[in-house]
């Protein structure tokens, strides 16, 4: 199957009180956008401030990305709002030639994040990229466990909103992000899969995400890391610990 070439990318970052990590997130994203635009990939970035009560808005305003305000306090609603705003700005581009790239406000994307996803779009409709917790925030035991269970070049079956991309036509056909408080990423990919979308998951554009144990949603990646750390400290076998993180 020959897929249309991607000419533009809509990039969405939902933000809910991330003043501690947001600057480094947007600095990394700026570098990725610069690489993409140098490769003639048009980028429309939307930073969605979701009922922030800290300095996130002031920090985001220092960067050259348009801001979107919402008060949903639900990451699915924030992502949906950001995608809609970015696609509106790309209304002169066919949906089949737009890619939607998603990350989180506590995460740092690699500089080739967007150009790699454009390459993936040649063979797949959805990209589920890996994430790596920031080792500076993890105890040595958990760092060693992560390295021992994550071989370079691995395929990825998990879904992480911090490293998720898909063709705009695929997104729209599946109904977009549901306005959920968590697992909106897993829900969307499941609906895409049910419609026959081709999904590729690997570590070729791995994103570094926060290694914190208390996150913005009860069942997100922070919860997985916290439970993993507890099992490791209790001497749980590695296979049991790995089974905790079926999705992020």
From TrEMBL:
It holds the Pfam family Glycos_transf_2. Residues 11-146 form the Glycosyltransferase 2-like domain. InterPro entries: Glyco_trans_2-like (IPR001173), Nucleotide-diphossugar_trans (IPR029044). It is found in: Cell membrane. Its main location: membrane. Keywords: Cell membrane, Glycosyltransferase, Membrane, Transferase. It comes from the Bacteria. Pathway: Carotenoid biosynthesis; staphyloxanthin biosynthesis; staphyloxanthin from farnesyl diphosphate: step 4/5. SUPFAM superfamilies: Nucleotide-diphospho-sugar transferases. GO terms for molecular function: glycosyltransferase activity. Belongs to the glycosyltransferase 2 family. CrtQ subfamily. Catalyzes the glycosylation of 4,4'-diaponeurosporenoate, i.e. the esterification of glucose at the C1'' position with the carboxyl group of 4,4'-diaponeurosporenic acid, to form glycosyl-4,4'-diaponeurosporenoate. This is a step in the biosynthesis of staphyloxanthin, an orange pigment present in most staphylococci strains. This is 4,4'-diaponeurosporenoate glycosyltransferase. It comes from Microbacterium insulae.
């Amino acid at each position: 199957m020959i897929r249309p070439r991607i000419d533009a990318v809509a990039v969405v970052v939902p933000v809910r009180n991330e003043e501690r990590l947001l600057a480094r997130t947007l600095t990394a994203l700026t570098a990725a956008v610069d690489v993409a635009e140098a490769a003639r990939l048009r980028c429309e970035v939307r930073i969605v401030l979701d009922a922030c009560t800290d300095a996130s808005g002031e920090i985001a305003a220092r960067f050259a990305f348009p801001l979107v305000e919402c008060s949903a306090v639900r990451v699915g609603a924030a992502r949906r709002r950001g995608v809609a705003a970015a696609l509106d700005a790309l209304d002169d581009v066919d949906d089949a030639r737009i890619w939607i790239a998603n990350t989180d406000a506590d995460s740092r994307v690699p500089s080739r994040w967007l150009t790699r996803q454009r390459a993936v779009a040649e063979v797949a409709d959805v990209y589920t990229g890996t994430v790596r917790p920031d080792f500076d925030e993890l105890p040595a035991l958990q760092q060693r466990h992560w390295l021992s269970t994550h071989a370079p070049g691995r395929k990825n079956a998990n879904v992480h909103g911090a490293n998720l991309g898909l063709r705009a036509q695929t997104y729209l056909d599946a109904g977009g992000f549901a306005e959920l408080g968590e697992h909106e990423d897993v829900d969307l990919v499941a609906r895409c899969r049910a419609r026959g979308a081709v999904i590729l998951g690997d570590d070729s554009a791995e994103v570094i995400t926060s290694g914190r144990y208390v996150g913005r949603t009860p069942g997100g990646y922070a919860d997985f890391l916290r439970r993993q750390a507890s099992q490791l400290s209790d001497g749980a076998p590695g296979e049991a610990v790995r089974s905790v993180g079926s999705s992020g």
